[in-house]
């Protein structure tokens, strides 16, 4: 069942991200806050941690390439970042307590690192000229808060979906 469920969930999240992106920027007290939904990479991180790294790398490469083609004009950026984030997640999850809370915190930390890497890359090639303080206040923190709420609501669903498919997966985590 999970053989068909994972690609369907990835596809749905791939198409839902831009729909939630339409709600951004938020105007609160005259300030604009940009919320970037990162549902797919968070799902891929959970797929890495609670199911199998090989599948997460494949879906990360595939959907990263789709993201590059459909949403930005720099081919290879997300198709590199998605699998790289999955590899880093698998490495660090072996070294921390393996539970849902630590997986959520790790996913948010990796999301923070990915957003900063994207900001630095876009600044390097001249696609953005926003100062770091503006990036932190108007994009990074709102993005992290919104994606933390998303993980708080659906993180346990992702974990239980992956663990219940194989009884031994409840006791084994990460790279196996």
UniProtKB/TrEMBL annotation:
Pfam family, one: MreD
Sequence intervals crossing the membrane: 31-51, 78-93, 105-128, 140-158
Keyword Transmembrane helix among record annotations: yes
Single GO biological process annotation from the record: regulation of cell shape
UniProt KW keywords: Cell membrane, Cell shape, Membrane, Transmembrane, Transmembrane helix
Membrane topology: Multi-pass membrane protein
The organism's place on the tree of life at top rank: Bacteria
Location of the protein in the cell: Cell membrane
InterPro entries xrefs: Cell_shape_determining_MreD
Cellular component terms (Gene Ontology): plasma membrane
Subcellular location, principal: membrane
NCBIfam families, per database record: shape_MreD
Family statement drawn from the similarity comment of this UniProt entry: Belongs to the MreD family.
The protein's name in its UniProt record: Rod shape-determining protein MreD
Originating species: Planococcus maitriensis
């Amino acid at each position: 069942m999970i053989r068909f469920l994972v690609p369907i969930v990835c596809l749905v999240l791939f198409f839902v991200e831009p729909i939630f992106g339409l709600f951004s920027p938020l105007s609160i007290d005259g300030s604009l806050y940009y919320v970037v939904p990162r549902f797919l990479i968070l799902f891929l991180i959970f797929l890495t941690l609670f199911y199998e790294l090989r599948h997460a790398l494949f879906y990360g490469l595939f959907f990263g390439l789709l993201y590059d083609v459909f949403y930005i004009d720099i081919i290879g950026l997300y198709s590199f970042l998605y699998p790289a984030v999955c590899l880093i997640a698998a490495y660090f999850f072996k070294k921390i307590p393996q539970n849902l809370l630590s997986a959520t915190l790790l996913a948010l930390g990796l999301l923070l690192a990915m957003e900063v890497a994207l900001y630095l890359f876009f600044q390097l090639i001249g696609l953005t000229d926003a100062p770091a303080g503006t990036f932190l206040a108007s994009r990074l923190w709102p993005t992290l808060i919104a994606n933390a709420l998303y993980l708080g609501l659906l993180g346990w669903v992702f974990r239980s979906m992956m663990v219940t498919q194989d009884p031994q997966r409840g006791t084994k985590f990460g790279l196996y």
